[in-house]
């Protein structure tokens, strides 16, 4: 059988992971300038940790290999949870295996459940066996660092901080955050989008899209029932905000004296030109995020079934270039909608209209 473009690319090139964290640098940077030590000390430590891990990611990239043959039990999760004990050494001490019963530590149980929810979503919705498609074991480390205000995928495992308890709660709480980070792994093994500029914003957006769909799948929500928020359960009491990001209304997730105001644009009219955050990858992701929301809301029903299927087809189809721009991705989603559902159906119309609404026009 002739190999697909994706299979050929996977066989020829190793995955290219990047350090991807859920709290964007602009929030941590704002907090690091606070006069209140309760805010600036955790933020500064988190920024230092994140800088260290970005360096480690660059060092590890050349060592990583493409997925091997699928395991015999690749359709079953294989999860292992470690405890960093508030230190910075990874992976930490092994505290939970796949066959173990519930732990006494709530963070361990939530991490286990979130990894499982993500595994089940990809398997049941799209037939994907773990994030690499071949049954990759899912590892996670909890209690990383001291009041560490972030969670991240480092190319090998999920890592969760406990949060500072003042602004951010334990990062194992929101299942969409776990789904977001693990989807960076899916992207790592498929399109391997460059983490810079518009391709980096697409990388972040795809993680938000599927993170939201994982939450919707777990809650059995339709598109109109979903809140379309990322990290809605992460903000501590007293924070003026609903979540880290809103796909329905980018720029409205929070407006807080400590965090600042949500700066995400919803359309190309607000596109942010910046050298910070790899060219604004956490900011400009609001534009493709909003396009997906518009498609899903127009089609209704379970968003992972049609809107999500189109996005998944593009992510895994082998035609998405590593340096793809918004217009490239938009064109591929239009083609994917036409291929799967026909050129005169509601799906094709919804995709074309959504990208037009956010100001992304095809080439």
Write up this protein.
By secondary structure, this protein is α+β, with helices and mostly antiparallel strands. Helix content is about 45%, strand content about 10%. The model is unreliable at about 1-15 and about 55-65 (pLDDT under 50).
From the N-terminal CA to the C-terminal CA, the straight-line distance is 33 Å
Largest sheet: 6 strands, mixed
Helix content estimate: 40-55%
How many β-strand stretches?
10
What is the spatial order of strands in the main beta sheet? 1-5-6-4-2-3
Structural class, please?
Answer: alpha+beta
What is the C-alpha radius of gyration, as a whole number of Å?
Answer: 19 Å
Number of helices: 11
Low-pLDDT stretches are: 1-17, 55-65
What string gives the helices and strands in order? HEHHEEHEEEHHEEEEHHHHH
Strand content: 5-15%
Shape: globular
Average pLDDT level: 88
SSE layout and pairing:
Blueprint: H1 5-12, E1 20-21, H2 25-32, H3 37-61, E2 79-83, E3 93-96, H4 106-126, E4 138-144, E5 151-153, E6 158-161, H5 175-189, H6 197-219, E7 229-230, E8 245-246, E9 255-256, E10 260-261, H7 277-284, H8 286-299, H9 307-316, H10 326-341, H11 346-357
Parallel strand pairs: 2-4, 4-6
Antiparallel strand pairs: 1-5, 2-3, 5-6, 7-8, 9-10
């Amino acid at each position: 059988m002739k190999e697909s473009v994706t299979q050929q690319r996977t066989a020829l090139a190793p995955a290219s992971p990047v350090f991807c964290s859920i709290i964007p640098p602009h929030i941590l940077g704002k907090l690091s300038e606070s006069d209140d030590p309760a805010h600036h000390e955790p933020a500064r430590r988190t920024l230092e940790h994140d800088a260290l891990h970005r360096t480690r990611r660059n060092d590890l990239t050349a060592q990583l290999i493409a997925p091997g043959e699928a395991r015999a039990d690749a359709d079953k999760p294989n999860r292992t949870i470690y405890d960093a004990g508030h230190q910075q050494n990874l992976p930490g001490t092994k505290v939970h295996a796949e066959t173990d019963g519930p732990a006494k530590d709530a963070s361990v149980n939530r991490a286990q459940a979130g990894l499982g929810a993500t595994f089940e979503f990809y398997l049941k919705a799209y037939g994907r066996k773990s994030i690499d498609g071949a049954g990759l074991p899912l590892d996670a480390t909890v209690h990383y660092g001291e009041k560490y205000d972030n969670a991240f995928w480092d190319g090998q495992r999920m890592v969760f901080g406990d949060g500072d308890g003042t602004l951010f709660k334990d990062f194992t709480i929101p299942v969409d955050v776990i789904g977001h980070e693990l989807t960076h792994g899916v992207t790592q093994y498929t399109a391997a989008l460059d983490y810079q500029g518009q391709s980096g914003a697409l990388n972040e957006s795809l993680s938000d899209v599927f993170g939201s769909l994982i939450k919707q799948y777990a809650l059995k929500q339709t598109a109109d029932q979903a809140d379309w928020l990322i990290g809605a359960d992460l903000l501590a009491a007293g924070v003026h905000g609903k979540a880290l990001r809103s796909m329905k209304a980018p720029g409205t997730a929070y407006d807080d004296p400590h965090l600042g105001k949500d700066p995400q644009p919803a359309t190309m009219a607000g596109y942010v030109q910046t050298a910070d955050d790899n060219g604004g990858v956490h900011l400009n992701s609001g534009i493709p995020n909003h396009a997906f929301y518009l498609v899903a809301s127009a089609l209704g029903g379970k968003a992972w079934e049609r809107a999500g299927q189109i996005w998944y087809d593009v992510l895994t189809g082998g035609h998405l270039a590593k340096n793809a721009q918004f217009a490239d991705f938009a064109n591929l989603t239009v083609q994917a909608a036409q291929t799967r559902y026909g050129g005169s159906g509601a799906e094709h119309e919804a995709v074309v209209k959504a990208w037009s609404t956010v100001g992304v026009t095809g080439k």
